[in-house]
């Protein structure tokens, strides 16, 4: 009974912390109810970032604080971490519901269940590889890396799609969407292996370049007319037509985080400089990944622009997607995997009927507070351990 009580306590504290910080982060967005959609989206962005950070750091702070108590008792660190993470995830529902009023608890629960199952599988693969990674180079180290790649590379290549189809998260497209995809593919002379629809409150579409498949959200099909959907379809087909060199670069940069499994071995052999070297390698790789993504998105935009049936059609479709999803028109130079909407529209030959919006803030007070809280929790544990000696 005590175990269940402690688990519920950790879950509740983590959820309450997440709900509270999300509520604070949303205040500027609430106050700007009458502002232009670009300003509201700009003010909403920090709350979204804070929510993502809270999901990871709130459980860490709760567990690191609780582990110092003498009643840690029957709850393992792993069990406490799982409970705290579940609390932080559930604490994000009020924020999502306020941003998207049509979002139901059932739909949100299914979406979060799929998303976090995928993340935990990836995290488990990397965690297990890091845990058994030997300190010295040899056949065992090669075997661990090979095992990780055998499991991870298929996911990078889109292997999650058949799983999503099996669990009902991806469905066959409507006749209308099938017609649009077929007509666009014929015009562009690009082969499409399969097309899928998925339920979402976000207007979104994506391509699986390695599988030749396209995915469209139901919300996208609701807010765009057929001609606009066709321009989005042309953009996504632009990704399917990427060169082998580009696809190889996608795969290589998708492996940028693999070196983190050597962190423990690097620390034991070279100390902090070894870990720092791995961190810098990953940081450089992530920056290269963003740069490559922006180039490929620009190429796909050009294909959609050239294929549109009338001037400005693709730019209007993009603007509708950003407005419905409440994504900022300007995030900031080189801070996202896509060029800013304002620049994408002007590149498509359309000047928006509003001045260029300000970029989203670089400093996020809620994120700073979480980082400070985590640092304080870590420092308190280090001091206690050293004091007990």
Describe this structure in words.
Helices cover 69% and strands 4% of the residues. The chain is mainly alpha-helical. It is globular.
How would you concisely characterize the structure shown here?
It contains 17 helices and 3 strands. The chain has 389 residues and is mainly alpha-helical.
The biggest beta sheet reads: 3 strands, mixed
Oligomeric assembly? single chain
H/E series, N to C?
HHHHHHHHHEEEHHHHHHHH
Strand order of the largest sheet: 1-3-2
How many H/I helices? 17
Radius of gyration: 23 Å
Q: What is the number of strand segments?
A: 3
Low-confidence stretches: none
Roughly what percent helix? 55-70%
User: Structural class of the secondary structure composition?
Assistant: mainly alpha
Beta content: under 5%
What distance separates the N and C termini? 33 Å
Instruction: Estimate the global geometry from the Cα principal axes.
Output: globular
Provide mean pLDDT, rounded: 90
List keywords for this structure.
389 residues, mainly alpha, 3-stranded mixed β-sheet, single chain
Describe the secondary-structure layout:
Layout lengths: L1 H24 L1 H5 L5 H30 L10 H14 L2 H7 L5 H28 L6 H18 L3 H7 L8 H14 L5 E5 L6 E4 L4 E5 H6 L2 H15 L3 H11 L8 H8 L1 H36 L5 H13 L15 H7 L17 H24 L1
Parallel strand pairs: 1-3
Antiparallel strand pairs: 2-3
Helix pairs in contact: 1-3, 1-4, 3-4, 3-17, 6-7, 9-11, 11-14, 11-15, 12-14, 13-14, 15-16
């Amino acid at each position: 009974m005590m175990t269940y009580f402690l688990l519920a306590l950790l879950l509740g504290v983590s959820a309450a912390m997440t709900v509270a910080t999300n509520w604070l982060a949303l205040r500027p967005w609430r106050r700007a109810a009458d502002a232009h959609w670009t300003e509201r989206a700009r003010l909403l962005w920090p709350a979204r970032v804070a929510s993502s950070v809270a999901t990871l750091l709130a459980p860490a702070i709760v567990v690191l604080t609780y582990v110092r108590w003498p009643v840690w008792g029957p709850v393992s660190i792993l069990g406490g971490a799982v409970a705290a993470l579940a609390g932080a995830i559930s604490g994000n529902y009020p924020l999502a519901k306020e941003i998207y009023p049509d979002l139901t608890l059932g739909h949100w629960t299914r979406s979060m269940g799929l998303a976090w199952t995928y993340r935990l599988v990836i995290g488990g693969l990397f965690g297990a590889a890091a845990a058994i990674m030997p300190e010295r180079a040899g056949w065992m180290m090669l075997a661990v890396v090979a095992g990780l790649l055998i499991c991870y590379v298929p996911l990078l290549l889109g292997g999650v799609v058949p799983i999503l189809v099996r669990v009902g998260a991806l469905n066959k497209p409507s006749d209308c969407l099938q017609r649009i995809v077929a007509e666009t593919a014929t015009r562009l002379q690009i082969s499409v292996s399969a097309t899928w629809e998925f339920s979402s409150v976000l207007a979104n579409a994506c391509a699986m370049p390695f599988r030749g498949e396209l995915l469209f959200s139901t919300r996208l099909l609701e807010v765009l007319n057929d001609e606009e959907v066709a321009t989005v379809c042309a953009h996504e087909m632009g990704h399917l037509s990427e060169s082998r060199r580009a696809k190889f670069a996608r795969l290589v940069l998708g492996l940028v985080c693999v070196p983190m499994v050597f962190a423990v071995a690097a620390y034991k052999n070279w100390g902090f400089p070894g870990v720092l070297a791995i961190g810098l390698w990953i940081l450089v790789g992530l920056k290269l990944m963003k740069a490559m993504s922006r180039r490929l998105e620009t190429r796909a935009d050009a294909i959609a622009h050239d294929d549109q049936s009338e001037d400005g059609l693709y730019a209007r479709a993009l603007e509708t997607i950003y407005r419905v999803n409440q994504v900022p028109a300007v995030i900031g130079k080189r801070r996202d995997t896509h060029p800013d909407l304002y620049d994408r529209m002007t590149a498509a030959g359309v000047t928006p009927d509003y001045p260029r919006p300000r970029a989203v803030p670089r400093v996020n007070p809620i994120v700073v507070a979480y980082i400070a809280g985590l640092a304080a929790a870590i420092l308190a544990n280090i001091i206690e351990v050293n004091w007990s000696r």
